[in-house]
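Supplementary material to the annual report.
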Amino acid sequence: MSQSEPVQNMNAKNLENATSDLTDGFHLLIDALKLNGVKTIYNVPGIPITDLGRYAQAQGIRVLSFRHEQHAGYAAAAAGFLNKRPGICMTVSAPGFLNGLTALAHATTNCWPMILISGSSEREIVDLQRGDYEEMDQLAVSRPHAKASYRILLAEDIGLGVARAFRAATTGRPGGVYLDVPGSLLGQVMDEVEGKKSLRQVIDLNAASIPAPAAIARALEVLKSAKKPLLIIGKGAAYAQCDEKVRQLVETLGFPYLPMSMAKGLMPDNHVQCASAARSLVLKESDCVFLIGARLNWLLGQGQGPAWGEKYAKKFVQIDIEPTEIDSNQTISAPLIGDIESCADALLDAIGGNWEKPSKGWTGAVRAKVEANVARMAPKLRNNNSPMDYQGAMGVIKDVMAEHQDTILVNEGANALDQCRSIVDIHKPRKRLDVGTWGIMGIGMGSAVAGAVETGNQVLCVEGDSAFGFSGMEVETICRYNLPICIVIFNNNGIYRGDGENWSGGEDPSPTVFVKDSKYEMMMQAFGGVGVVANNPDDLRRTISEAFKSRKPTLINAIIAEDAGRESGNIGNLNPTSVVAQHIYPQAKK
Ligand code: ADP
Ligand code: TPW
Ligand code: MG
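Predicted assembly:
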C-alpha cells in the first residue's frame, strides 16, 4: 500500500494480513479526541457506535453509559460549563441523536461548549430516502440547534472534523456542535503513520479577545458618572474561569452586585457587596447597570418593566464576547466586546489606583435593606415542621452548603428551584448547576453525574418531585459508577403543589398531581444505593450528613406539605390568563 494515500473501505481480503501499520476510523476518532484532551465521554451505546465506546474505554478514555441520551447530553453540557472545554456526548443514529439533540440545544442556548457525536446510517440510502435503519438527515436536523454542524466522510478528515468541532464549540461565544459520524466512516482503513499525521491539536482553544482601548475609556466614563451603580454578574463570568480577576474588579469598583443563578458563588453570596436580598431595590433604583457575562433576556425581564423603575432612566454597560448580544434589548451606552478576563484586566489597568467608590448613601441603603431582609427570613429557615415547608427544608440545605463549600449543588423544579436559589448561599465559583437559560426540567441526574465525575467533589441535588422524574432512571447510572451523589427530593406530591383537583369532578387526578406519598427512596434501594425518608428538617440534616460521610449514592425522600408551593414558583406571571375561565370554573383563581 502507498504510504501517502489513505485506503478507504479496504475489503476483508486486503485485511487478511492486517498489521499494526494500519489504523481505522474508530481509532482515528479516539486518537483525535484524546489529542484534544478528552478524558470522558457521556454515552449510550448501539449501532453503529457500540464498539467505539468499547475501544475508547480500552484506550483510556472514561466512557460513562447512561440510560437515556438526553441525560448523557446534559452531563456533557454541564462538563462544558465546568471545564471551559467541550463536553462530549455520543449517541446512536436518528432517535438516539434526537434524544441527545435536546441537550445540544440546551448547551447552545446557555453558551456552553459541547460536542454531540452521533453515528448515522448509510448516506446512499438515507439521502434517497430508501428507508434505512434509523434513517434521518441528522446534519440538517441539527443545524438550527447547534452553533455549528459537521459531517466527516473520509478517515483522513477525522482530525480536521474534530478540530473544527473543538474550535467552533469553544472560540467566541461557546455553544453546541454536532459531529455526524457515518457508520461506514468508522470502518475505513488507512495507513497508521499517515493517519497520525492527519490529526490536529487545536491551539489556544480559549483565545483571548481584547477590548479596544477606546471602549474601555468610554465604559469607565459611564461607570464613573453613576450615582447608584449596580453590577449584574452572569454565568458567562463563572464560565470564563478568571475568578480572582472578577473579584478584584468587583471589589475595586465597590458596586453592589446581583449574581445570576449559576454565577452565584463566583463572588460569595455573603459578601458585603452582594445585593441579592435587596434585588427589588437595586433593580428599581440603580441609575447604571454593568452587565458582566449576563444577557438581558427573560430572566432579567429584558431590562425593562416596573421592576426596573422609570423607562429609559438607566444606562447600561456590558461585557460580552459576542458582539451581537449588545443592544439586543436595551441601549448599551458602553459596550465592551471581549473576553471577561481581558476586559477586567484592561479596566483595572486603566483605573490604576484611582477610583472613587459609590457614595455611602447608596451602598449603605442597599446594605441596610439586605440586612433587614436576611433577618426577617432567618426565623422561617429554622422551623422544624413536619411535613416540611420549603423554608424549613432549605434552611438545612443552606447550612450544609455553608459547611461543605466545595459541594456541587444541582437544582431543578419550580418552588424547589426558586426557594433554593434565593435561600441557599453558594460560596465558591461554579458550584451551582441548574435549569439554565431555558428553565428546563430534566437536567438533574446528568448534571449530577458530570459534577461528580469532572470535579471528584460531593454532589447534592435539590429536586422537585416532578423535576426528578424527568431523569430518575439515571439513579442506576449513579449506583453503577458509585458516585458521591446525594439526591434530596422535595416531595409535595406534584407539580407546584400536590393538592390539585380534577375540575370536571371525574376520577382522573388533576394534570398537576402524582401518586400520593410515593416511595422514591425505593428507587435508589433498587440499585444498591441508600434510600431514606426525611419527615422534618432534623431528619434531613442527619440523612444528608450520613450521605456526605459515606459518599454513597443516596436518595432522601423529603416530605413537603402538599399546599406549601405556589403555581409556577416565582414565575406564575408568565402563565397566560383566560378571561372566561373564572366564569366557567368555580375553582379558578380570580
Ligand atoms: P445568565 O443566565 O447567568 O444571565 P447568560 O447565559 O444569559 O448568563 O449570559 C452569558 C453571556 O456570557 C453570554 O452572552 C455569552 O456570550 C457571554 N460569555 C460567555 N463566555 C464569555 C467570556 N469568556 N467572556 C465574555 N463573555 C462571555
Ligand atoms: C422540559 C414545565 C416547570 S417546573 C415543573 C414543570 C413540569 C415541575 C415543577 O414541579 P416540581 O417542583 O419539580 O415538583 P415544585 O417544588 O414546585 O413542586 N418540561 C420541561 N421543562 C419545563 N420547565 C416544564 C416541562 C415545568
Ligand atoms: Mg413538586
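Residues 1-13 have pLDDT under 50 and may be disordered.
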